[in-house]
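G., the chain you wanted modeled:
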Amino acid sequence: MSAGNERKIMTVADPAAMARTAAERLIARVATDNGRIAICLTGGSSPKALYELLATPEYRSRIPWDRIDWFIGDERLVPRKDPLHNMSMARQAFLDRCAPAANVHPIATDTADLRDPDVSAALYENELMAFYGAEQLDPKRPLFDLVLMGVGPDGHTASLFPGYPAVEETRRWVVGVPKANVEPFVPRVSLTLPTLASCREMLFEIAGEGKRAILTRLFAGENLPANRARSQNETVWLVDQAALPEDVRG
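Predicted structure as tokens:
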């Protein structure tokens, strides 16, 4: 088990094994609390297999959907029907079929006055604070039970890009990101590192040969956002064999 700023690295054979492992960890995390559960989802391609797996009869029947609230770690300011919209991908994969609508908490992106990422960020920050019941995060009372994360080719996570001011933000819970460092170059909204850290478990999914180069840099300890994203409690990186650097493969 990892704690504090340590992390545990778990290797799996392939993306299918990664999805199964992540699903089992999610279910195990939910089982530790009989009350309300808060899970922070991630976008991108890595978690889609996990999301689709959660909607299958085998897993769907094991999840207490009525007491789980679903949030999102970052969003692209595009219309909800746009394929680039992170929460819409999660909705299509599993939420719309499984979760009560009132338990799904997207970042607002659709109206004209919300095309300003700072406006959307402030609204989502207020929603998180209302859910949490306070304006300051208490290390003894995590905001989330589980935070799902991914890693971009430049070492970003959520929409926290290398060298961007958002990475250094410690006061705000959510920030606007006017322009992304990688495609798609659209405005973003992202939870900050302290907000993401307020969780019982942070779970990264890193799969595919295309992630091997950035994973090599991260394993070398380079100061990139993905290396700075740590839970106050347990941090786990699920890495498949294809993504592992050559010197650690096998």
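The mean pLDDT is 92.

Shout if anything looks off.
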